[in-house]
Structure formats: structure tokens, C-alpha cells
């Protein structure tokens, strides 16, 4: 204000010779001079009136209020003192500075002053309106007109989506679904198990939870007697211990850079905070809900402030900001180069300190496709290299050839066979409860079938080499000597048989090799990568064009233009929609990386990192742009970063945008997003899939149609509702892999965003960097927690991912250079030019800064140089393999197949038993631990830092509560009574709970009657009940169940106990009473069907005993009575279960066409036991070949019929007809196409 200079001027003018005369003239003169000064300072200092002593405010003509023009007021004045012309009588305060206003009509209040849509016709000022979306408020509760996007209903404005009920309907539907699911879970808990395979499925789910834990990051050591499996402690050194490869160590080394980097990023606004002008401008930005103007303003300095001083001060501030960012850019540039070189040196040191499988291997390329004999190739290499390098006899430990697995059907069949080996090993080790196995398999027969398939694949040339093999040396020193000799002369490896071979160094572990993609050429991978990246970009643009941009224009824009924030059901829908969109974008990135066909995991991770970083970077730019657009729509005004910094209103708008950026990142983007990621990506899927699995496959208390609909949200669910195989259960709740590639993206994007925000003037900018510094510490701890206790373990070898992260550091550096260029424009260091020229120059500056960083990084750090560290000279590869669970052999699917079934291809030193030839998989490491140490694997199995531990406890407690309430309710209905009513001879009452098993009933009877459980035989009707049967599976329509108790003799009870304990069964059957007791023999043959030969003749003729024996072992049929083997009904019942039991049927029955067809339906191999007369019958063989299970039948026909052209044509037609049939197996992903593992071609093979 001009009070001080005018008060100084008046006494001076009044000190003349004629005081009274001159005083009046002096006042008039001073007033005239003041008016001239006010005109000169128009709009610069905020003066629109002069406060003269005794006269109050004097408004010069030139400074009188005008319509629709932005004007300044003295900030010590009240808005009520301002008089606007009659055609625009309302004072509309500026949303940026209360000292600025416009004169508008009542209908224009909301347009010029967003948020102030209620004209006070008495006070002549635009007041705030509390009605959402109202453009003209007649009163505090009544609206006359609404903004675009809102509908006027009952004097209120309602958002158009909310007005037609769409948002509310969606939210109500979601709420009903959630409440319905919760009630369903509670009802299911109360009703208990209803699925016919509830126990089996529940055990599979328990085993799946165990598998989820085993997939996490553990330390496995086969040689340890105390702890073959141990949790990695949360305090473990991630940079010195080889936790999961050097890539993880480099990641945590890299995070050390960001912590001090955040502290170094002081902002220009800190210096500006000391500048009185800018500090007061920012302090003046306050939102006022009262009519008077606020008292804080930059205009307090008006006595010594001139327009020239204002421009000079703002230019100085912009210039200081430019030079500050320049110094920051070059300082960060140099420090980053030093850190990049430090990371590469750390990689070399880490490789020297930690010995792994890569230190013993070299990659051999240029092999012919026919080279599929590992033993032969090893001997050839040994002889050739011995000519040029001094080698020991077994210097080459082995060779692992990569095979062409591009045929999906063939690959699926190989996976089936390897899965059979894994399940057989699990059964041998007793790794899982027997209740979790659906059907006991005849492993000997299965091995014969799998071996025949494997031999056919290699002998017929279906499995060919891709020309690549990993040569494993016994010592690392030998490997280095061979590599050195090859680097001097490439002929040391060339042989007449292998003229095109070459050697390459290996810097990755076998678990990092994608063996199924080794046949892909570099050109194929590049084309697929580019195609995948384009698909992601197209998906990103489509999503933004169809969802994000329309949402912001029609939803966010409608709210912001009205001066309000997004709220209500629309806000909730927005959160859900954007969450789903981001999830789908991430899924697209992962899927395209998977289908690109990379040979190594480091390239797979690098592709994910680069693509995700670019997508998230532009996504963040869009978010920042939308945020700025929304703030401008709410606050009003116009802002341009390419104009000189001389507009106070512009600074106020920038301050609002800076505050919005800070509010968007803290705590949301920097903290809440990661916690919600754990909840939505870990806790929710685990809980959802566990509960849905129980609802469908354990409780099954909903109609089948609803269960099929519910099965949509259960991944890896089988086709039916009866059985839930363990493989599917494991895949459904398996945790996601360690996301180091995704974590790198977070650092790059957040740093780039922070550097972008430095282009605006806001006190929130330095707070954002302070929050970013705290986030670096938080994210370092958070990453350790996620990698060690939440995510599935994964291997990260080599420094390719870290190098890609350093190269993409060009994005933050480019953003920092771009901010410096903006301040150069605002400081008028850049000549005046059109706006589009400024934009083009900005883009060029950012590109050049990024290119300068990339070029400098390559010249200074030289990341492409070979850093082949030498491993320990004393430790052999055998010693390394003793400690590590994986090797170059058990990670290769084809090599494991050879170890199991083609041993002549494998070197003698690699020969293992069939049960030891196991493919390495995450979560299956325990299969490589000796059987006598298996019990130690589950020691300290749970960890308090796992959320699964607490959720499982919660599930258990909820189950206990609901069961207890259910039992209490039934007890109240029955009335008070004793714990167990006295049992009488004829009839007795025994209260029980539905969750009880028959074993629990036996214990209760024992407590009430003192009859031992072993002497109790419980019957329901004529059917004997086993201990594992649940009561709730027997009670269907009533809460009561009638059972019959028969007391066994003491001798019989002892025999049954001996059978159950697994004593020598043959010795037990030496007693005549055991051989003649039907119940004892039933228990015996269920364990070993061949012991039927010791039974009495009467029991050998008993259909129940013989059937149980044959079901356990088909050979037991030979010990059945002749009468049974000649009885059509019984034999038909048997061959439905065991087709090859036809071998022991009577000669007459083996000649019966109907019975033979029935046996062949169960097992096509049963045809070899049919009568030769029948196999020589062309009519019969024609029927078999025309059936859906007969494409392999011709091999069992008579030799003459095998050459019959008609039958051969039928066989080819049948094979072609069923070649493309699909049949999902229990251990295969839904939708995979493959043939029956038993060699059948039909879709209803009983063996599957």
C-alpha cells in the first residue's frame, strides 16, 4: 500500500511559507501525484486505492472497477468496500489470491470463481456454495442451474452416472456379492463337509499351502544333517550372501544410491523461501470462506516495490532456479557414473566370492540336430581338447544338450512323464499324507509305458538337438584353461564330425535357462519382442483412449469444473476401474515377455523392466497432466510454463498444482500403493482361492450351477466339481515370483516424476523430495520383506538387468534437464518464440540429456566388457552339486528323461536310480533331500512374518467357533443330558458332532462302554464303516444316524491291529484263524492282493475278498477260485477296474467279444490276453478299430490282419480322428491340448 510514502510527502509539501494556503494545494498536489503513481503501479503492487489521512480510500478514475477484467485490491481492504459497475455488480474473488477479483454478473460467479457459485445479492459478492455441481445457487439448499455433467433433481445437482442409478447399482451389486460370499462361507462352516471327496481335496489344499511355503526363499543344503532347509533371516546380507543370484545383490547395491540421492535433491523453493517476495506470495495463497480479504499478502512490501523491481526479482528467482538445477544435473551425472562403475566392480567381486554352477560351464554352439547322445559328445570333446590342453581323464564332467521342445503336444507329454516321476518320488518319501492321493497308481506299469514313449521319441527322431549344449567341467581352472586356449585358437574345439562348433562363456545358472525356448533364433526372439512391445503399447493407448481419457473428461472434469472433488459411488468405481486397468497392463507386460520366447531369464526380466518402465513413465505423465488439468479446472485461470515468471496469479496456480502432485504421491503412490499391492496381490488371492476351493471341493453346499459360476474366479481349477488335484491346488495359491524387475521400475519412475515437479513453484516440491528420501529407506526394507517372506523364490544371474536400469536412468536425467530448460525460458534466457518451438526445444533437450547419459555410461563404465571371474581352484563341481539342489543336468527336462529311461545315453558317473532322476522345480527341492532327513524339512516351517501363518490361524479359529456353536445349538435342542447316555444291549443314544469321523465315534463308545476301538465293528445297514468316514457325509436329511455295533473277538482284534501296523503279513497268515476270517483277509489283501493265495478256499471264492485283492493287484486274479474266474458277471466287474485281469479269466470268457471289449475300454493292453481266435476275427478287429479306443488295437491282431489294408486304413483314420482331441488332466493347466498319458487316443480313457 502507499500509506507510508504519502504520509512522508504531505508534511514536506505543507512546510511552505503560507501554511494554510499551501496546505490545501499540497494535499491536492499530493493526491494528484499519488494518482499518477497508482496508475503507474497498476496491477504490479496490488493497489487499486490510496489511503489518505482523514480522507479514507481514494479511487482514481483509471483504477475504478471494471467488468470481466482481473483487478487487484489492497489486501487490507474488505471485498465489501469494492463497488462494481451495475452491469456486473458481483465481486468474484480469485481462487489463487484473495487480493485479486473480477466484477461479474450473478450467473457468472461459478465461472470466474470456481466454488463460489452463490451470489450474495446484498453484499454484492460471490460466496461458496455447498451444493455439489451447482452452477448457480439461489440459497444454501436450492440450486437453479447445474454444471455440465450434472442433472438438476429436486433443487439438487446429481452426477449423471449417479442420477440414472448406474454407479449405485454397480456398488450395490458388488456389496451383495461380497455379503453373499461371507454368508456362504459361514453357512458352509456350519454345515461342514459335503463333497464325496472332501477329505482328499482338503488334504490336497493343505499340501498346497505347504508347497506355497516351500516355494519361498530358503537355504537348501543336501549335506547338512541339522537343517537341510532353513529360512533366510530378514537381517541376511543381501549384498554379500548369494541369496538368489548376483542380480538380487546388485539390486540392493543400487538402492544404496537412492538414499543419499534423495537428500541431495534440494529444491529451488528452499532458496526462494528466503526471498521475501516469493515467500509472501506463497504464504498469500490461502482459501477464504469469508467475505473480507485475507490480511497476508505479498503487497505488504509496496512502499519500496516498483514494477521494475518485481520483474527483476522474479527473473532472478527463475535464473537461480535454472543454475541450481544445472548444478544438480551435473553433480548427479558424475555421482551416477561413479555408482554405475561401482556396481560393475561389485558384480566382479561378488562373482569371485561366490562359486556357482556357471563357473564350471561353457556353452557349445553349432552342433548338428542329430547330436542327441550326451555320452558320445562328452567323449568326443574330451579327446579333442586333450590334444591342445593338458586335461585329466575326467576333466569334462558331463554335457547337457538342449532339445527342440517347440511342439506343444510333445512338451506336454514330457511334462506328464516328469510329473509321474515326481509323484512317485513323493509317494516313496511319504512327503504328503496318503489322504491327498486320489487313486493309487500301478507305478511299475506306468514306468513301462513312460519308458516306451521316451525311447520312441529319441529313436524316431522326435526329440532333436537345437545345436546348443552346456559343457560342464570338473574343475573351474580346467574350464578357464579351455576358454583361454579357445580365445587364442578357435580350432582347438573343431572336429571333422563337428566343423561348425564354437564356445561361449556362461554367466548364468541352469535355473535361469528357459530350456523350452532354446530352439528359438535371435531373429525370432527380436521379432516376438518387438511384436509384444507393440501389443502392450497398443493396449495401453486403447485403454487410455477408451477408459482413462473419457473417464477424466466426463467424470473428473465434471467435478473439477464445478470446484468439487470426485466423491460418492463414482469415486469408488473409479478406484476399482483404475486398479483393474493397471493390473491388466501389468499382466499384458508379463504375458508378452513370456510369449517372446527368451532363452535366458535375465533377458526375460530385462524385457519386463524396460517395457514396464516406459509404460509406467508415460502413465505417470498422463496422471500428472490430468492432475494439473483438474486443478486448473477447479481453481480457474491459465498457466504456461513457457512465459516469464511475473504473474502472481500464475504462481498461485502453480502452488496449487504442486500441492496436488504432493498429495497424489504422499502417502498414496509412495506408500499406500505398495501396502495395497501386498493386500490385493497376496492376502486377497490367497484368502479368496482358499475359501473358494473349500466352498467348491470340500463343503459343496451350493447348487452345482452356482459352483460352476464360482469356479471362474478359481485359477487352475479342474473341469469337474468332485476332485481337486494337488497340482491344481498348488498352482491356485502359488505366490508370485520375486519382482526385482518391477521394483527397478519404481525407482526410475518415481525419480523421474520428482524431477519433473521441479518445473513449478511450490513449497510442496521440497517436501516431495523429503518424502522420496524416506521412501527409499522404506522401500529397501519393504523389498527385503517381500523377497524373503512373501514372493516365490527366483534366480537373477548376470548384470544385464542392472545395466538396463542404469541405461534407463536417462529418463530421470532427461526430466531434470527438461526442468532446467523450463526455468531458462522463464528467466528469459531463451529468445522469445512461439509455444510449439518451446515444446520442440524441450523435447530435444530431454532427448539429448538422455543420450548424453547413455553415451557417457558406455564410455566410462563399459558394461559390455567381459568380466569372467575365476572361481575357487580347489572346489570341484561335484562338491558344488552336493550343496546346491539344482545342476546343469536336473534342470534340463530331456536330460532327466534320459537319466530315468535311456541310461545308455548318460555317462556312467551320472547314472542314478529311477526314483532319483527328478526334474528340479521351485517348491520341490525337498525331493532331493535324503529320506532320513525329510522330517527336518518341516522344522520351523512357519514364520511370524508370513501373513499365511496368521490367516491359517484365523481360519482354524473360525472353524472351531462355528463347529462349537453348531454343537451347542443341537445340545440345546436335545435338552440337558449326560455327556454320554448309558449304552444298552438293544439300543443306545450317543450325542456326536457332525465333524466327527468314525474313529471319533469309536473313541466315544470306548469311553462309555470300555469296549476298545479295535474290537468295534460299526455297520450302517450291511456296509462296514471305515475310520476316515465323516458323520456329516452319512447324515443327509436328519440330525440322527442309526449304526449297528458288532463286537469283535479279542483274537480277531489283535490280528487286525497287526495288519494295520504293517507287520509281516505273510507270517500273520500262518495262523488258520487269520486265513479263515473274512474281515482279516479283506484288510490283508487291501495292502497286498497277492496274499490271496494264503486264504481258505471258501474266501478265494468270496466275491468281495477277491475283488479287493484284484483291485490292489491284478495278478491276484490267478489265485481266485475257478468258479469265480468262469463267472461272467464277476469277471466283467473285475475287468472294469483292472482290464489286464482278463489274463486269468477262463478260456471261454477270453473268447467272449463283449467281455474283451469291456476289458479293452479299461486298458487297451488287455487285448494281448484275448483268445487268438478272437484276434484273428476280422469282424471283431474292425469293431475294435472303429471304436473310440481302438487306434492301437491292430498291433495285437493276428499277423495276417496286421497287413490287411482295410484295417490299416481304419487304424490311420482312427488315429487322425482323435489326434487333436483335448483332455485336461489333473496336473495340467486348463485348456492345454495333449493326448492320453497311457497311449490311448480317446477322450474317456478310464486310466486318466
From TrEMBL:
Keyword presence, Secreted: no
Protein name: Ubiquitin-like domain-containing protein
InterPro entries, sorted: DUF4116 (IPR025197), Growth_fac_rcpt_cys_sf (IPR009030), Ubiquitin-like_dom (IPR000626), Ubiquitin-like_domsf (IPR029071)
Domain Ubiquitin-like residues, every copy: 983-1048
Record carries keyword Transmembrane helix: yes
Keywords: Membrane, Signal, Transmembrane, Transmembrane helix
Organism: Cladocopium goreaui
Record-annotated membrane-spanning stretches: 169-190, 536-560, 566-585, 606-632, 668-686, 698-717, 744-761, 768-786, 806-825, 837-860
Signal peptide: 1-16
